[in-house]
Design brief:
About 60% of the residues lie in helices and about 10% in strands. By secondary structure, it is mainly α. The protein has 2 domains: about 1-150, Ribonuclease III domain (Ribonuclease iii, N-terminal Endonuclease Domain, Chain A); about 160-225, Double Stranded RNA Binding Domain, CATH 3.30.160.20. The protein has a 3-stranded antiparallel beta sheet with strand order 1-2-3, covered by helices on one side. A hairpin with a 2-residue loop joins strand 2 and strand 3 (about 200-205). The longest helix is centred in the first third of the chain and has 22 residues, at about 40-60. The mean pLDDT is about 90.
Amino acid sequence: MKTVEDIFGIKVNNKQLIKAALTHPSFAIENNLGINAHYERLEFLGDAVLKFTISDILYKKYPDYAEGELSKIRSVVVSDNMLAKISTALGLVDLIILAKHEEKQGCRKLESIRACSFEALLGAYQLDGKLPELYKFIEKTFVPYIEDINNSPEKYNAKAVLQEYTQGLTKERPVYKTVSTEGPEHNKTFNIEVEYQGRVVGKGTGKSKKEAEQMAALEACHKLGVMN
């Protein structure tokens, strides 16, 4: 608990909230604990807190940016990839409480778990009545990443941008499909299409599925007018 307080620089009143925010659902199930003993509900709240705070920071920091540009930056900043990176940098990863099986499987390294527990901590602090302090922490922690993203447009996570855009319209997520692969096993090239509402909106090629999906998402973002 002292470690969490040191990392955030915010004192804790309700220590059970912080413990729950660091507890993976597998541990709660393994030990017959209730729904409020793990991080899922707190993550739901923390996600909203983070998006609102980042939106407010971006709105004030870039007064000349249109809504689309602000949304692009926010999509990258609140993505699992970014949150996992920040969680690791802060030293929160070692504090996550996992069930024995998940620990053996190396689940602590999973991007989604690192991101979820971080968001859950934000939710826990909000419930603990520390929103003003939390805003300052988020601002201090995230602004360097925001500036880096703003100065390097090529770092935009096209998949995150596309997903936020489509879900904002219809709640539907883009679907990625591998159309074909070419070349020998050690040097494959992947051809991927991304569909939205049953229509192909982008195509991409890459040396890995991840790279090809990003390229397909990037093309889709350009076609849909999400990115310039």
